[in-house]
Amino acid sequence: MRRTYRRPGRTGSNRKIVIGLVVAAVVGGGIAVGTGLSSASTACDGMDQAIRNNQQFIAAQRANPNSQTEAVIANRQAVIDLINVQKKQAGCGGAVAAPPAPPAQQATKPPATKPPAQQATQPPAAGNNGNNGGGAGQVVCAGSTVTLSGEGGAPAASSGTHPIGTTLRVRNLDNNKSITVKVTSVSGSCVLLNNAAFEEVREPGKFLIRRAVIERVG
Fold it and tell me: Which domain of life, per UniProt (predicted)?
């Protein structure tokens, strides 16, 4: 009998495995290349943005300079130069255009403020004889002298300036005595005190108050 020998070779399944490995290697290499290009592009974009940020800062400094502007600009320009060196080493191409300078800001002065108006205040009223207190009123008939009207009755006053019913306070600055009375009649003076009122503020033996302060208190 004749024996038949079969030459050793690759089967169909072996061929499929080999082809699959080759395809995987090619695809893997393509992915590696693509990933490398993507990373390089991202790095270049980041350096370009850093340059733009520094250029914008320099433009703003030049638009609104101060005592440290020159030193600050020199420092930022050195940073830009260093980034350009790194771009060249990484193979990044293209120069970054400088941004337009922002408009200069005009210095504005704060509006002038006026101090609050001070209200005129009257000096505190001098003391009295203890019978007629009360707060300060409106000074009237400045410089007038006060004398008596000769009328009797309870303390009262007559006036040709203030209507009947007005309350006046008369102070004698020579003895620091005062009295508050109502106008009950009409006369030709700013104020005349009747006998009882005049006795409250007069100096002994005198019938005229030369230094008097007359206030309207009601």
Answer: Bacteria
